[in-house]
Amino acid sequence: MKFNYEWNISDKYPASGIEKHGSTVFSCFSCGGGSSMGYKLAGYDVIGNNEIDPKMMKIYRENHKPEFSYLEPIQTFKLRKDLPDKLYNLDILDGSPPCSSFSMAGNREKDWGKEKKFREGQSEQILDRLFFDFLDLAELLKPKAIVAENVKGMLLGDAKAYVNEILIRFEQIGYFVDYKLLDASKMGVPQKRERVFFTAIREDIYKGGFTDLFGRQPLLDLHFTENEIKFKNVRDSKNYENKLSDFYTELWSQREDSDKDFSCINGRVRNKPNTGFGCTFVKSENVCGTLTSHKDCYCDFEEGRYLSELEWKRIGSFPKDYNFLDNQPQYVIGMSVPPVMMAQVSHRIYTEWLKPIHEWEGRL
After folding, report:
1. Domains defined along the chain, listed by start
2. Contact 103, 151 (CB under 8 A)
C-alpha cells in the first residue's frame, strides 16, 4: 500500500482511498496527533487520547475531535475507575512514551531513573518508566493489539537490558510481542527517520502462524521497500520565508560539496570546527535526515535558506491543512510520528492480524 505524503486531513479518504473498516484506536502520549493521523489514513477510527501537555492537547482536540480525551499524566490515567466501556474493547492501544532518556542526543544513562520535566509546566516524571505505565494501562484495557513507538537509542548499549524488561512485561500481561527498527524513508516518507516499533497481539485471540519453531513470535510483515523520496521532490523552490542571517549567508557562500553542515565551513574558514553542528545541509539528490523540533535544523544546500513550513509538512507527511493553532509547526512535526509511517505499520496490522480476527468474530 502506498500512502501519499502530501494530503489534506479534510479529504474523505485522505491520500490512500482506504475506507473505514471499524477498527478502534486509543492513543496515549498523543502529542499533536501524528500517529493518530496515520491510523486514520489506514482506515481506523481513533476514538480518544491521553496527553499531559495542555498545548499539544489543544492542537489534538482541534484537529481530531476525539470522543474520549484525557489531559493528565498516564500515572493517574491508568488508575481511573470511570473509563467508558469502549476503551475496554479496543482493537489497538497506541503509545509513544517520551523517549529523551534513550536518545543518542541526550544524557542517556545519566538520566535513567531520575524525575524530569518533559516540557515546561508539566509534572515531573521518570521518563524511562513511562513505557511500563503504558503497559499497566494495557493490562487493564486488554486491547487486541498494542503498538508502541520509540527511538533507535533503545536498542543500543545498556538500553538493551531495558528492552528485555519491556518484552518480559508484555509476556506477563498476555501478549505475543516483537520489535523492529524501521526507516521512514523506506515507507513513503521523505525523511530518513529510524524508529523502533513494538507490535503485540493478545495471546488468547491470535489466529495466525508463527515465525519460529517455538510458537513465541507472531507473524507480521514489516518489511517495506518504497522508493526513497529525494529532497528535490519536496522542495518549495525559492521560498525565502526562512532566510539565513547575513553571517550564515556569508558562510554558506563558501560551502563545498563535501560539507555536511555549517561546522565544516566554520572549521575550514574560521578555524572554529565546533560551531554550527545544529544546522545540517540537505541536498537535492539526497533524502532529508530526521526532522528535529528545531525549525532551523536543516539548510537547503543549493538555495541557502532554512526549510519552509510547506517543506516541513511534506517531509513530515503532515497534512497541508493541519491547524497548529498558535504553536510552531516545526516543533509539533519534529516531535511527532510521521503519519505515513504509522499508516504503513497499522495497515499491515489490520490486514494480517485484525481482519482475520474480525472475520472470526463475525464482524465482517
Report:
1. 24-226+337-361 (3.40.50.150), 231-332 (no CATH)
2. yes
